[in-house]
Design brief:
37% of the residues lie in helices and 14% in strands. It has 242 residues and is an alpha/beta fold. The strands form two sheets. A five-stranded parallel sheet has the order 1-7-6-2-3, with helices on both faces. The longest helix is centred in the middle third of the chain and has 13 residues. Bound molecules: zinc ion (2 copies). One zinc ion binds next to helix 3.
């Protein structure tokens, strides 16, 4: 069944470079020149959010200034891309519904970025969207990414582990404290899914991490729901200087 759907998708969307539209052959979705221009994160990173850091490691855990000033309720975090230039354009396309075919290669990049934090018993769950926003956008881009990551890694997946019971106002322009407060009352474990996260490690998936307020609310909801350790994986991290 899945193969038939895949074939149908490939007929509608022949594999084209997500950057320039040229035909490509790989599952990774980019031609050579676009690959080189896409801001993939590599090298030394913050263990909590995955943002790149200058210098090397001495074997000790390192964190960026953001994660040091705002301690995260999760254990480790990774991101595949920096939210700039080409990556920003691709993610906006995914978010606003006109480029859903971007989700599969993006999930492969994310699975690769998360390699060192993944383990067998983890449960993958997306950051939830409120129903009204889901209707407007037609799909939850984080759920689409999470679903492909689960398929790629063979880890368990629960699309509705968390629910957003309140449609929060746009968070842009709020301080980190205001965001956290607004979100903490909006995101909850699904009452029928608590058993799935009990004493288990959860990997939360989102498209972009800015301040981390949404992921904080989701991680706290999982911890309140009885989860063990929380890990986060985002497609892109907004770096401070962008
Ligand atoms: Zn290209
Ligand atoms: Zn960080």
């Amino acid at each position: 069944m899945w193969t038939r759907i895949q074939t149908a998708i490939e007929l509608i969307y022949p594999p084209r470079c997500l950057g320039c539209g040229d035909l490509v052959t790989s599952d990774f979705g980019l031609c050579g020149p676009c690959w080189r221009e896409t801001p993939f994160i590599a090298g030394t990173i913050c263990e909590s959010c995955g943002t790149p850091l200058p210098g090397g490691t001495d074997g000790h855990r390192i964190e960026c200034d953001d994660c040091m000033t705002t301690p995260r309720p999760w254990r480790d975090g990774r991101a595949a891309l920096l939210y700039t230039g080409r990556a920003r354009r691709m993610i906006l396309g995914l978010k606003h519904g006109d480029r859903p075919e971007f989700a599969r290669p993006a999930a492969l990049w994310m699975a690769r970025a998360a390699k060192s934090i993944l383990h067998d018993k983890m449960l993958i769950a997306p950051v939830p969207l409120h129903r009204s926003r889901l209707i407007k956008r037609r799909y939850n881009q984080s759920a689409l990414l999470a679903q492909y990551i689960a398929k790629e890694t063979s880890l368990s997946y629960c699309p509705d582990l968390l629910i957003r019971t309140k449609n929060t106002p746009m968070l842009e322009g709020m301080t980190a404290d205001e965001r956290t407060k607004t979100l903490s009352t909006a995101i909850h474990p699904h009452p029928k899914r608590r058993h799935r996260m009990a004493a288990r490690d959860v990997l939360l998936v989102d498209d972009v991490m800015t301040s981390g307020a949404t992921l904080t609310a989701c991680a706290n909801a999982c911890l309140a729901g009885g989860a063990h350790h929380i890990f986060v994986l985002t497609l892109a991290r907004v770096a401070k200087d962008t």
